[in-house]
Every structure is written in C-alpha cells, then in structure tokens.
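INFO batch 0412 | record 1 of 1 | parsing
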Amino acid sequence: MPGFKDLTEEEVDKLLMEMPEGSSEKDIKEALETAVKNKTMLSIDHAKTAPMPHEKPPQKRKVQEGESLSEIALEYSNHYKTDVTAEAIAAANKIKDPNKVKVDTVLDMTKFMKKME
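INFO prediction complete | emitting tokens
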C-alpha cells in the first residue's frame, strides 16, 4: 500500500502551497492520499508502456511522462547485457542535458543496438 513517503518533499510542499488557506487536516490528508494514488497510477501506466523483459526494445523510443533517460538506459542495458548510459543516449540524440528530456521526445536507439549486437 503506497504511503505519504512515496511523495518527494517537493511534491508535498507544492501540494500544501496549492491548498486553500484554512484547509482542515482532513482536507490536507485527502489531498495527500489523492496525490499518492495519482503518482501510483502514473507508475502503473508507465509499466504498461514499457517493453516486457523478454521483448526486444524498439529502435525508436518515445519518452513517456515521468520517465528519465536513466530508466531508458537501464532498460536497454538489461536487455543487451551491456552498459548504456543516460549521457550516451543524450549525446547520440543531441540532447544537451540528459536530466531535462521532454515528454514525447523520440529517441533513436539504433546506434546502441548495432554496437551491442
């Protein structure tokens, strides 16, 4: 069962800032529970879009909401049993900052696949 610990300090702070002044403890608790539930649902949705471990990752890979280049690198590393890094993916796709990749960015992963096969 997910709990409030599943939210980052920044997420909690943002939620509290968005609460109307004078909100009751009950209102705040309900808002936190909803935030945890929504975050959990996002994780479940992401899991549905990620390839199964036995499936070959695609040559073109679209970045999903809440996903990082590090997660994508790990996915390819696990499949091909080699070391793929977020920095290498960023460099190959002309992304300046691997920590700031936009949702729906299409990554060309063929360079890594050729090196690994």
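INFO post-check: The radius of gyration is 18 Å.
INFO record closed
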